[in-house]
Amino acid sequence: MYLVDLRSHVSDTDSRRELFTETAGVWETLCAQMDPEELLWVVAPNEYRSGELWPVAMATAEQARSEAELTLKNTVTVHDWRERGGEPDLQSAHVELLLLVSDQSAYQFHKDEIRIAHAYQGNEWGEDRQEGNSSYHDTTVRRYNPEGRDPGNVWVDADRTQTEGQEVDEITPFPLSEAVRRCVRVGSSEGDRVSTLWTDELDEVIIAENREVARLDPETARPEPEDTPPESTVTQSDSEEAPPRCEEARPDSPTRPSEVEN
């Protein structure tokens, strides 16, 4: 598994052009290193600057796609709305976690490792709907998994215990460290190596999950670009040649991913 944290780059840059320059070459380098079953998680904060939203997450996903043909499989939103001590009201209050893969037929995703408690007691889908079809590789899955439910794409801590019903009584911020812990658990197993770039304090979360941290050299991962990326999102039309395919660097690819239940 690979983990890249863009928070410091976003806070230190003044434009998307500068951010793209700082990360140019990274995605091609990581794609060439990744095994087919590995995941690449990217911590990408969206920020407001001068009254405008910087769409860092989607712009980064497009840069990765056009540079190395990495595929964006999912995004997870992590909200944080703590008091900010005099900062403008429209400061960023959420971070996007991008899930990128190099081989859509072989990547591993251990969803059972991050299941959470069901919102309601009993069978949420009804007694007559114990099983159903999944969009994941034509598998059949249980509609109600006794091990817990999928946490979804927006991660918050919701308290449903303050009243008699199952409605949400209170929502509290979800720590980024807990979000990264989930990423580590779905993308690796105990003893596995997690390669990190610009993660700093997040390495401690990885180590706590009994994984080996392998810090990547920023200078090696980010070679000097020949051309400065444009101000707008990088697209295929910006280059006459097609981006290199990850598969060319990895001929020995497994053919199927692990089976995952909803």
Protein traits:
2 domains; 262 residues; Rossmann fold; alpha/beta
In a few lines, what is going on in this structure?
The chain folds into two domains: 2-112 and 153-249, Rossmann fold (3-Layer(aba) Sandwich); 116-149, no CATH class. The chain contains seven helices and 13 strands.
Question: Describe it for me?
Answer:
Helices cover 22% and strands 22% of the residues. The chain is of the alpha/beta class and 262 residues long. It has two domains: 2-112 and 153-249, Vaccinia Virus protein VP39 (Rossmann fold, 3-Layer(aba) Sandwich), CATH 3.40.50; 116-149, no CATH class. The strands form four sheets. Strands 9-5-6-2-1-12-13 form a seven-stranded mixed β-sheet, with helices on both faces. Helix 3 (26-33) crosses helix 4 (56-68). Residues 125-129, 228-245 and 247-262 have low confidence and may be disordered.
CATH class descriptor of the largest domain? Alpha Beta
Task: Provide the number of structural domains.
Answer: 2
Using DSSP, what is the number of strands? 13
Instruction: Please list the strands of the largest sheet in the order they lie side by side.
Output: 9-5-6-2-1-12-13
The name of the CATH architecture of the largest domain is: 3-Layer(aba) Sandwich
Give helix % range: 10-25%
Structural class by sheet pairing and helices: alpha/beta
- Radius of gyration over alpha carbons? 20 Å
Order of helices and strands: EHHHEEEHEEEEEEEHEHEH
CATH fold topology of the largest domain: Rossmann fold
Unreliable stretches, pLDDT < 50, 5 or more residues? 125-129, 228-245, 247-262
